[in-house]
Amino acid sequence: MNLCAKKGVTMRLEPIENPTVLRKLGLPAAALAATFLVASLLAMAAGANPFSVFGLILKGAFGSKFAVLETLNRATPLIFTGLAVAIAFRAKFWNIGAEAQLYAGALVTVVLGTGFLQWPAFAILPVLILFAVLAGAIVLLVPALLKTRFGVDEVVTTLLFNFIFLLFISMLLEGPLKDPMGMGWPKSARLIPDARLPRIVDGLRLHWGFGLALISAVMIWIIQTRSTLGYEMRAVGLNKEAAAFAGIPVNRVLVKTALLSGGLAALAGFSEVAGLKGSLTLDLSPGFGYTGIIVAMLALLNPLGVVVAALFVAGIFVGADSMSRAADVPTYLADIMLASALLMMVLAIMLTRFRVVRG
Amino acid sequence: MDIIEILFTASFWAAAIRIATPLILATMGELICERAGVLNLGIEGIMVVGAFAGWMAVYSGTGLWVGVAVAFAVGMVFGLLHSTLTVPFGLSQHVVGLGVTLLATSATYYAYRLALPEVTSPPKIAAFQPYEVPLLSEIPFVGEALFAQTPFTYFAFLLVAAVAIVLYRTPLGLAVRAVGENPSAVAAQGLSVTAIRMGAVIVGSGFMAMGGAFLTMSAFDSFFFEMVNGRGWICIALVVFGSWRPGKALLGAVLFAAFDALQIRVQQTEIGAEIPYQIFLMMPYILSILALVVMSRRAEVPAALMVPFNKGER
């Protein structure tokens, strides 16, 4: 290994004062193009024609009314988890535990909504939303306090909580929450009809969870751009020491961020149970919490961008499902595309602000 | 059987050492990365790809040690990807690490489906077999616990010694530790911070992949999805628990594995059968979090951990 800098070719990064529009748009576009190139090579490795694979993904995601509705439904939890990650990452609070918070929201929804509260829809739904948000917030409060009180890195604790919480749900589904009518499957009882989220338009398979997701995105956007808390969160994310010096209560801002983030992720669980599934099972989320990280990063942590990114990501997943059936290419192609899109996008965004120079 | 009695059986400690081995290998990998100032959250995915690559190599007809080398090489490739993005380009180590984990995991599953499209249950390989070290294995208790393991386990213990010697007794190790503490000083000496950090991440990632390979080539003889199951994240906690020191990290891994082996045995006792099995499965993760909390106050974090180095900013 050549440890001596003088001999080797070295590089450093130099800030660009005023990046050109071409640079700002061209580089992210190049990142997306590179992602599709990677996917093409992988499709060819599976013996398929890349263009027909992409065509099938596009058709599967947006090609029919059914496909579009499926994509919107799949995007709904991703908007919530994407917002949860976006708001946390903005304050440099690394919440990787959206999966656990999602299940916390789902858990509260089935605990209260399967008969415990026998209220009409207009009364029970707001209560379910409130308690789901509280549950998610509390689940993330633990890692947040461990961070602010003991300095324990929240990345590891939130990741580990995902495993702990899923086992906890599994325990409840095989114990007190088990549906006696469930033929032995570990699933909860079904929600009472009034606890189900209604459809936005009669006859169309799209529930109000999607509407709630859009409202949440706008609300988070307003908080981030128009409120003191939003300003403080950005300041803490940019530079903790400087924020503390400017009199911002850093720890309190981090805890508030965590509460908000956990609450948002929990709404994904509420909306999946109340809008789509009607009961809680262990496969409620195929990794929506982790995918939320990709959504948030592709959206550059912008709450409104999260909606667009969630639709893109959901489209790829839904499209890849139907592509896989038709073209015999494993669905994991979608996961690879999104992981490489994430890596290339963060690189592209950095290169819009810095130039690589020799020396 | 009584819990105390279990602790005094050699077979219990043999199991603990076996459970500890993948953790030891991957923890050494993460420790090398972090000592050089780079948090590698790609660990979970790199363990998955290592588990697959080593097993697949042996399944395709190579020898066992060649399989280990293949896993190491594949791990290094992902280490190269991680370090290119985090070191010269200075991108967020959190985001890149998670991205590498997602990429490595999904690439592994994709490759598995392409390589074995028809199978319902994954094929088995002839995995590493226990090797009783002459003389040493005849020592009562210790021999059975420590010296009747597979050669892969012996390799892991030798690796800890090697990592400790290189880190504390060689100029290379000094350079690695220095870029994790004070990169500017290293650069002032005319050494390349970028090269040292990248090298550390690449080699460290290779060891993470070996940790994964142990699962498919020694602990079991087949590859399953979800096989790594959070072990990578536990290793990150073990590095903190071990205060970034190879010896202490080894101790932490064995202690941790002993708890794991204990819970498996307690599950089979009369009291254990009354408790939901999920409680036992939660234990490793809860223990990791507790370890982090306990150690947080006295941990000696490398000063430049997660701080990118860019010469332009000096």
UniProtKB/TrEMBL annotation, chain B:
Recall the GO molecular function terms of this protein's record: transmembrane transporter activity
- An example Pfam family from this entry, by short name, is BPD_transp_2
| Residue ranges crossing the lipid bilayer per the database entry | 6-26, 38-58, 64-83, 95-112, 146-168, 198-217, 278-296
For this UniProt record, give its keywords in alphabetical order, as a comma-separated list: Cell membrane, Membrane, Transmembrane, Transmembrane helix
InterPro entries associated with the record: ABC_transp_permease (IPR001851)
Q: What cellular component GO annotations does this protein have?
A: plasma membrane
Q: How the protein sits in the membrane?
A: Multi-pass membrane protein
Q: Where in the cell is it found?
A: Cell membrane
Predominant location category: membrane
Under the heading PANTHER family, the entry gives:
ABC TRANSPORTER PERMEASE PROTEIN (PTHR43370:SF2), SUGAR ABC TRANSPORTER INTEGRAL MEMBRANE PROTEIN-RELATED (PTHR43370)
UniProt name for this protein: ABC transporter permease
Species assigned in the record? Neptunicoccus cionae
